[in-house]
Design a protein that fits this description.
Layout lengths: L1 H7 L3 H23 L1 H34 L4 H25 L4 H8 L6 H25 L3
Length: 144
């Protein structure tokens, strides 16, 4: 076990998880090559995601982070940063549903009316910030 950790740098569970992730990614790449049109769409999507993140979003959220959290004490910054980033990540994943961009398509396909997702996302964000505030309060009461 110590030889594995010394050579690999992690435990056997980490190695198995890494190998499983590589196998899943490899299966996805093989699947894309079976249908060239899908491969083209995936490459376009990756290119657009890279451009959107690196050129547009990274400078924006870096400036917001420096401007907002630069004014807070270092001990408080993590308690604001973690729920904010988690909430932003959830919004990035589900924003079409939250803002109702697919409501008509979903209704036509399933007969289900899409509603309430904005309220749920706001509630989740509020809970994340409340839990973070509670963690900060508990941390403040502990000695040391």
């Amino acid at each position: 076990m110590t030889r594995l950790r010394a050579r690999y740098g992690g435990g056997p569970a980490h190695l198995l998880a890494s190998l499983a992730s590589l196998a899943i990614a490899g299966a996805a790449v093989i699947g894309w090559t079976q249908r060239p049109r899908d491969l083209e769409n995936v490459l376009i999507w990756f290119g657009a995601a890279i451009v959107l993140h690196d050129i547009v979003l990274l400078p924006i959220y870096s400036l917001v982070d420096r401007h907002t959290l630069g004014r807070l004490p270092v001990q408080v910054a993590a308690y604001v940063r973690v729920p904010a980033l988690t909430s932003a990540l959830v919004l990035a994943v589900v924003f079409p549903t939250v803002f109702g961009f697919g409501a008509r398509t979903e209704h036509n396909a399933s007969g289900i009316v899409e509603h309430g997702y904005l309220a749920r996302w706001l509630m989740l964000s509020g809970i994340l910030f409340a839990l973070s505030g509670l963690a900060y309060a508990v941390r403040g009461r502990r000695p040391g």
